[in-house]
Design brief:
Blueprint lengths: L1 E5 L2 E12 L2 E12 L2 H8 L12 E2 L3 E10 L2 E8 L5 E8 L6 H19 L9 E7 L2 E7 L3 E3 H9 L7 H19 L13 E4 L5 E3 L6 H11 L15 H4 L6 H17 L3 H4 L17 H10 L11 H9 L27 H15 L3 H9 L5 H9 L5 H12 L2
Antiparallel strand pairs: 1-2, 2-3, 4-5, 5-6, 6-7, 7-9, 8-9, 10-11, 11-12
């Protein structure tokens, strides 16, 4: 049992010892919370103090105007780009702490690769990644500024008039956002942090924008784990992220679909996730608070399934279900989507092994995994050298050994 206090808030996690493949593992069984989950999470994963203040010039280019937000991985600033006629942009500062010096270089390499991968995203409903740099020992990302309001703010405004969002509005909202998820999932990128705070309504275009990707968070998470294997870093919000993500560190494309559905029912009911789930059974009971059509409820409940293999596998399946008169039958297993592979692959390395390597590697180093697999394939002479080269890209030595042992058995 683990207990933690953060001011007046209190959390207790009950674990059980489970024997698996000759190893004893601690598996979380129950979570007891008294107080704000957001308060507890912020306390558990707080960042060190930043040296950045208003009017700080970062990268000899970005003049900080004010702080937009702060979380467990750092701060977000509104800045003016001095090289683009004071054009506003968003600068994200990541503050890795408790990381061994030996891991810092690997952290920069992974962060750079992940940033480059996300820089290639070109979709009108995703803020463009503009640049990344390192300064004062901290890592920074620069993104396009979205002129609008997030849906948490829009919901609070409606609640002042005892209202929330309607089924018609949320149906269209889903239809607007699902193609965005389809686009990123096709590129083996998983958002990991969908919530009302991270979806914005663009003031000029009047469309929902998906913001605040997990870029950098995964890199820092892995390095924190390498420094202290007892730490458990959360990428994703408690209440919105599914169990496989929070408790096991595994993310699939339909992990994003789960978080999208939780966001949808929060906007429909005006209530927080902890009010919409039975704490004893972990069953969702959101339909007690809002009346929607049976078909729409069935689509959302499929997305909200606790087991990944009982959800829709892809955003395209959800779109088809929303547009059909009968709910589409879900695929039997979640699949980590992969981008198109090169036409020529080393004959000694099977396509099955390549796919399995991508699935496993993405759990350790995030969306850059698919890129690394394709790059490593170019110089791999055999399955053994291929697996060994990929294992070297994992910062945590124990995870690297685990990856190599697991893949070597295939």
């Amino acid at each position: 049992m683990v207990e933690h206090r953060a001011g007046d808030a209190f959390v207790k996690i009950v674990y059980a010892k489970v024997q698996s493949n000759g190893r004893t593992e601690m598996v979380p069984l129950k979570l007891y919370v008294d107080g704000s989950l957001e308060h507890i999470t912020a306390s558990l994963f707080s960042s060190p103090e930043s040296e950045v203040t208003a009017q700080t010039l970062l990268g000899n280019r970005y003049l900080v105007q004010r702080v937009l937000g702060q979380g467990g991985f750092g701060r977000t600033y509104l800045a003016a780009d001095q090289h683009r006629f004071e054009e506003l942009c968003v600068v994200k500062e990541f503050l890795p702490h408790s990381i061994e010096d030996s891991d810092l270089q690997k952290s920069r390499e992974l962060f750079e690769r992940e940033a480059k991968l996300l820089h290639e995203i070109d979709y009108p409903q995703i803020p463009k990644f503009l640049a990344y740099f390192e300064e004062m020992g901290h890592l920074f990302l620069v993104q396009e500024y979205v002129n609008g309001r997030n849906y948490a703010s829009l919901l609070r405004e409606r609640q002042q008039h005892n209202a929330a969002f309607s089924e018609v509005e949320i149906t269209q909202w889903l239809k607007d956002l699902l193609p965005v998820l389809e686009y990123i999932h096709d590129r083996n990128i998983i958002h990991r942090d969908i919530s009302p705070d991270n979806v914005m309504l663009h003031q000029d275009q009047n469309v929902p924008m998906l913001i605040d990707f997990g870029v950098g968070k995964r890199t820092i998470e892995q390095l924190q784990r390498s420094s202290d294997s007892r730490k458990h870093s959360i990428v994703g919000k408690v209440g919105y992220a599914p169990h496989e993500q929070l408790w096991m560190g595994h993310c699939f494309p339909n992990s994003d679909l789960y978080a999208l559905a939780v966001t949808a029912i929060v906007l429909l009911t005006g209530k927080q996730p902890k009010e919409l789930m039975d704490s004893r059974t972990f069953f969702w009971h959101w339909q007690q608070f809002v009346q929607v059509s049976d078909h729409f409820a069935q689509v959302l409940n499929t997305m909200l399934s606790d087991k990944p293999n009982e959800r829709y596998s892809t955003a395209k399946e959800v779109l088809a279900a929303l547009e059909s008169s009968d709910t589409t039958i879900v695929s039997e297993a979640p699949v980590v989507t992969t981008a198109s592979r090169p036409a020529i692959v080393q004959q000694s390395i099977s396509a099955l092994l390549i796919e399995q390597c991508e699935r496993e590697l993405v759990n350790f180093i995030g969306p850059v995994a698919q890129f690394l697999v394709q790059e490593t394939l170019k110089n791999a002479a055999s399955s053994e050298t291929f697996i060994a080269a990929l294992a070297k890209q994992i910062p945590n030595p124990q995870h690297s050994i685990e990856f190599q042992r697991k893949l070597s058995r295939l």
